[in-house]
Amino acid sequence: MSYISFGFYVFFLFFVLYSLLVPARHRWKVFLTFSIVFYAYAGIGKLLMVILSSLFVYLFARLMGRQYEKYEQEIREKELPSRERMALLSEYKKKTKRLVVIALAGMIGVLVLCKTYSKILGLWEAVTGDELLLTIIVPLGISYYTFSSVGYLLDVYWRKTKPEKNYGKLLLCMIYFPQIVEGPISRYDKLLPQFENPKKISWQRLCNGLQFMIWGYFKKMVIADRLSVVVTTVLGDPGSYEGFVILIAMIFSAFHIYADFSGCMDIVTGASYIVGVDLDPNFNHPFFSRSVAEFWRRWHITLGTWFKDYVYMPIATSPTMMKISKKLKKGFGIKAAKNFSFVIPTAVVWLLTGLWHNASFNYLLWGIYYGTLITGSQLLTPWFAKMAKLFHIKTEGASWHVFQMVRTFCVFMVGRLITVPGTLQGTWIAIRQLFSACNVWVFFDETFYSLGLGRTEFHIALAGALLLLLVDALQEKCCLREKIADRNIVLRWTIYFAAFFLVLILGMYGSEYSTGSFIYAGF
What does the alpha-carbon distance between residue 465 and residue 222 come to, in Å, rounded to a whole number? Predict the structure, then answer.
């Protein structure tokens, strides 16, 4: 069930009505019921798969919790001194470590299998010449609920949170329908308290939530779906285009994925906000970032924080890393030790980030591309500072900040060029064609109106991208939603209805329009 289908609008209306009728303490049951219905709509087989996964997570979390309960009971009964307590805890840790390793291997193994199955089939057919008539069921949102579940299991193992005893609530954390398709990747310790004690549904929350949703639908249906036509036309067949046509497609591609993904996040954030559950923010105007590292702190925030907490920090603080770092500090100085402790975990994170998106050479190269840029930038920061001082560059001036933002946007565009064509060969052709001609005349003839969009549609797409940039710029300085809410009732509702009818009038519809085309749903 796509978030932009008529079926979802009806589904969501009933969801809000039932949430209003049921007392707050029982509202989580409404959330669970509607989430199961939403998931079942994708297929009963998919629902059974996610239920099996949730039972697996529930069982191993409870088993780990039971070990820690035994430990606490033993120290209470025996009144052990601190040294013996630590030794006893170490013994119980070994038992829970076996459990968490099995649990993580199971969850991550299924994710890897689902992501690589098509490649395994292709390899099998290439080697044997036989077609393997075997299919697997890929659960909806497997990348997102797997990462959330892995975080939950590790938090239980690290004793940061206690295992949830109510299976229904744990299942709800996994399949809560506003976040199952594209995230955000929420933490169970943040979601569970909100499910158990959701905020009161009020007129203000309804208005604010609908603002989120309308802006999200505008991004998706008015901007992203138009830009995707040009992007698919050009970068889907880069050998047929050259020069500035490729460049415009690259720019559109950057705005396309941003409008598509952030639009979806606005829709689900608003939908959840209405019924009293605040999802974690996932975007913070990344096009205004001054560096690549800052860009990825603002883009898909929950994925970045997940990798930081569950991959980067465990590697950086591991005994092996600490031991090597200590030796480097002794032999080469503190700077070498710090650089090593930064570069290795960052490289691992970006390789995994690339593979999380897609198990292909394009995304592997994409991960290497960003990992190299971020680590290189960190290592060369002192040199950059010296160059700026040498050439008298005012790094605090507005012009320098604009340059940094444009530079970061260009880096992002190149990153899109690595993945959008679909193959490394397609990427190479697009790069070659980009520099094959200086066809400035395309800005003055009808070329851009032959890329899948007519003149009017092309101008709407362009105006939408510029409006998106303008709104983000305003939101960098203030909360635009609160500013609108402070206006008088006539102006306020004029803005609301204008936004609604803009989506209604300018949104892309028709028999050829796909309602299931959110980009990150494929990851």
Answer: 10
What does 279-306 look like in DSSP terms, one character per residue? PPP-BS-GGG-SSHHHHHHHBSHHHHHH
Other beta carbons within 10 angstroms of residue 402's beta carbon come to 12
* Residues 156 and 163: beta-carbon distance below 8 Å: yes
DSSP state for residue 457 in the 8-state scheme: H
Q: What is the pLDDT of residues 441-477, one digit of tens each?
A: 989 888 999 998 899 999 999 999 999 999 999 888 8
- Scan for tokens 């031991």, then name that residue: 323
Distance separating alpha carbons of residues 247 and 249, to the nearest angstrom: 5
Q: How is 230-286 classified by DSSP, letter by letter?
A: HHHHHHTSGGG--THHHHHHHHHHHHHHHHHHHHHHHHHHHHHHHTT--PPP-BS-G
Instruction: Write the single-letter amino acid at 378.
Output: Q
The answer to whether the Cα torsion of 332, 334, 339, 345 is positive or negative is: positive
pTM (two decimals): 0.91
Spatial contact of 100 and 157, defined as CB atoms under 8 Å apart: yes
Residue 488: alpha-carbon gap to chain centroid: 36
**Cα–Cα distance between 220 and 225 in angstroms, integer?**
6
Closest listed residue to residue 118, CA positions, set 420, 290, 358:
358
Long-range contacts of 232-235, Cβ-Cβ distance < 8 Å, separation of 24 or more: 232/452, 233/451, 233/452, 234/451, 235/417, 235/420, 235/421, 235/426, 235/430
For residues 117 and 136, the answer to whether their CB atoms sit within 8 Å is yes
Place of tokens 């970032």: 289
Asked if 130 and 98 touch (Cβ cutoff 8 Å), the reply is: no
Q: How does pLDDT run across 339-387, given as a tens digit for each residue?
A: 899 999 999 999 999 999 988 899 999 999 999 999 999 888 888 888 8
User: Using an 8 Å Cβ cutoff, are 35 and 64 in contact?
Assistant: no
Per-residue tokens: 432: 């070659």
**Within 13 Å, how many C-alpha atoms sit on residue 268's CB side?**
25
Residue 78, H or E segment: helix 44-78
Buried b / exposed e over 263-301, threshold 16 CB at 10 Å, is bbbbbbbbbbbbbbbebbebbbbbbbbbbbbbbbbbbbb
Contacts of 294 (CB under 8 A, 6+ apart): 408
Cβ atoms of residues 260 and 220 within 8 Å: yes
Spatial separation of the C-alpha atoms in residues 439 and 471, rounded to whole Å:
32
Q: Which residues pair with 299 in a beta bridge?
A: 283
